Amino acid sequence: MLSVRSLSRRRVILSGAALATSAIVGPRRLLAAADLESKLRFGMVTYLWGKDMTLPELLNQCTVAGIGGVELRTEHAHGVEPTLSKAERRDVRNRFAESPVELVGYGSNCEYHSDDANRVKANIEQTKQYIRLMHDCGGTGVKVKPNGFSKGLSREKCIVQIGESLNEVAAYGEQYGQKIRLEVHGKGTSELPVIREILQTATHPNLFVCWNSNLVDLEGQGLEKNFEMVKSRLGDTVHVRQLDLGDYPYPQLIELLKSAAFQGWILLEAHSNPENKVKAMIQQREVAERLIG
Q1: Average pLDDT estimate for 173-186
Q2: Considering only CA atoms, which of 233, 225, 242 is closest in space to residue 202?
Q3: Separation between Cα atoms, residue 229 and residue 206, nearest integer Å
């Protein structure tokens, strides 16, 4: 298996070769390809294919598979948690800097819908810990999520509470250069009309939607209408499942993202458990490249 260092060198060589052939294929075509690549990039979240990989293993596997970026989910084998010391955080930053893999951000389980005020406060404070962690490690944001409605709150009050909590963590994240990425998630709260209602309270400009490719996206008036409800608040991350299962219209989603001038990461969140993870990662990257065009 090739090391991270050798693959980095190989990418430099390939980049040089691409420049050398620019006179043959034509500058306009190369610029168009480069522009497309800069807008839609393929990466992965560690949930679930990367959950058992240490950080060195994760970086090496992603490099071999050509995965350009990774969102680290909390409580996985990579061990990147708020308990890391300053020196350990520098080590994480350096490991990413020395590899071709970017640290896209952090996948937290922070949620703000509880009818227990202390629990909501604890989740807000935990989000702030993750924000500082990503700032120190070189990430660009923290993923949070609505996770349903609380039985102890009215629907309207719960939505406002989630929105106000998001405003607080978004303002805090802005101080550290970290985006807050609201994953479309949760029973009831994953419906796009509900996300739109949350955004009516959560107006901070550092709060962005992370599209999550849920089957509920296809309900109501369909994918395009649901997409339009939140496209103005899209950030730079989209979560997808395996792209070749045929259970979600990914070709249509990619076209909607392009039409919305989306620039960012298509992050694989695969729920299967293939024996050969690298082979599966390569396969999904190749499917993504065909979809992106």
Answers
A1: 99
A2: 233
A3: 18
Token readout for 69 is 């970026």
Q: What is the pLDDT of residue 10?
A: 39
In DSSP terms, 44 is beta-bridged to: 70, 268
Q: Cα 204 from chain centroid?
A: 19
- Report how far residue 251's alpha carbon sits from residue 81's, in angstroms, rounded to the nearest whole number: 35
CB-based contact 252:224 (threshold 8 Å): yes
Domain that holds residue 187: 41-292
**Positive or negative torsion for Cα 236, 252, 222, 49:** negative
H or E element at residue 264: strand 264-268
Token couple for 58: 């994760």
- Distances from the Cα of 291 to the Cαs of 225, 240, 253, in angstroms? 21, 13, 10
Three-class secondary structure of residue 242 per DSSP: coil
Using CA atoms in the order 111, 114, 119, 123, what is the torsion angle rounded to 10 degrees? 10
pLDDT in tens, 188-225: 999 999 999 999 999 999 999 999 999 999 999 999 99
Helix 86-97 to helix 55-65 angle (10° resolution) is 10
Any domain includes 23 = no
CA pair distance 255, 89, nearest whole angstrom = 38
CATH code for the domain in which residue 49 is found:
3.20.20.150
